[in-house]
Amino acid sequence: MITRLVKAGFAAALSVTTLATGAAASSAAPADAPAVQGQHVTAALNGFLPGTTPPGPGKLSVGWTSAGTQDLTGPTHITVDLPPGLTTELGMFYSTPYDYTFTESVSPDGRHLDAVLIGTRRPGRYEFMKLNVGRDYTQQLTGQIVVTVSNPNDTDPTGHVTALSVDGTTPAPVVQAPPTVDGLDTTTGPGAGGTAVTVSGSNLAHGMVLVGGVPAAGTCTDTACTVITPGGTGSAPVSVVTPGGTVAAPAAFDYTGAPPPPPPAPTVGNLTYTSGPAAGGTQVYLQGTNLTYGTVAFGGVPAAHVSCGPSFCSATSPAAAGPGPVGVTVTTAGGTSAPVTFTYTA
Questions:
Q1: pLDDT tens digits along 281-326
Q2: Would you say residue 173 lies in a domain?
Q3: Does 233 share its domain with 314?
Q4: Is the pTM of this model over 0.85?
Q5: 3-state DSSP helix/strand/coil percent for the chain, to nearest 5?
Q6: C-alpha–C-alpha distance, residues 340 and 320, integer Å
Q7: What is the largest CA-CA distance in the chain?
Q8: Together in a domain, 19 and 120
């Protein structure tokens, strides 16, 4: 798993070419999807494939939109599967501000990309990654490119799967069947993590396993997910998040022995805005260190729309009782940062 925060000068919609110069790709969530409530995310795919003769790779844009009525929270999982004859390397993801953690990996054969975005996203937020796609010209291309997106807090299964046939046609929208989990082959392991666990069940394809709410590195087939546990303590619930929904395992994973060392304490160096009205609503960016999974507070009052990456948080100031200075802090599992002053005005 590799963390990448890469700028990519890439338009959200690529120009469409004809099959003579490369198969065109354009696919999005169905327009007639039902109205959504709460947290929801949808997938999109556009771009073009390599031409019928070399040289030059194809380019795909894999996108996802926070389409619900509430901020999208928790880890968002994105997968890309290519048919035989097509391969890709790690994608280039660009999104600002850098208030997130983005990790990705590619299978050894170059045909499966797996990515996780951890960060809060407001409704309507669109993000994408660019993929270069190579071709084996000794093979005749058949099959589909399939993109999925899922989030444990999204209970609407529509819009999670989008596909493109290599002949340029767009298949009918697909809603993946809900997953089931039969059990875990291993239910205990050290607090430091690193235990190999197989989760068996059905409809687990394109899945992400959470152990204690934390994504576990690994891969899923339709009937099993094989992952490596992250560090943790106590009895941690296990769940599998797929485009068809989220299912809890019948057994928890019990961490034994010493817990992992706590992460370093967060620090905050500065705020982009140091004052705002007492009514609240000021969007503030915080720069610092060790901020991942952080929560932000103004004078002890939780901020709204909080999203934190390793060195950057965004937050919206809450209302205050009246004008005056307050301390802004970030709290993580490693502790609470020293306060930085924000002054509420009348």
A1: 999 999 999 999 999 999 999 999 999 999 999 999 999 999 999 9
A2: no
A3: no
A4: yes
A5: 0, 50, 50
A6: 16
A7: 71
A8: yes
Residue 280: strand, helix, or coil? coil
Written as six digits, the tokens of 338 are 């020293």
- 289, amino acid identity: T
Question: What are the phi and psi torsion angles at 35 (to 5°)?
Answer: -60, 140
Which helix (H) or strand (E) segment holds residue 142: the answer is none
Closest CA to 232 of 252, 247, 208: 252
What single-letter amino acid sits at 115?
A: A
Structure tokens at 245: 């929904």
Range of the domain at 239: 180-256
Token pair recorded at residue 105: 């990996």
Helix (H, G, I), strand (E, B) or coil at 274: coil
Torsion angles phi and psi, residue 344, rounded to 5: -80, 135
- The domain that contains 315 carries what CATH number? 2.60.40.10
Torsion from C-alpha of 346, 338, 99, 302, nearest 10 degrees:
-50
- Asked if residue 261 is part of any domain, the answer here is no
Overall number of domains in the chain:
3
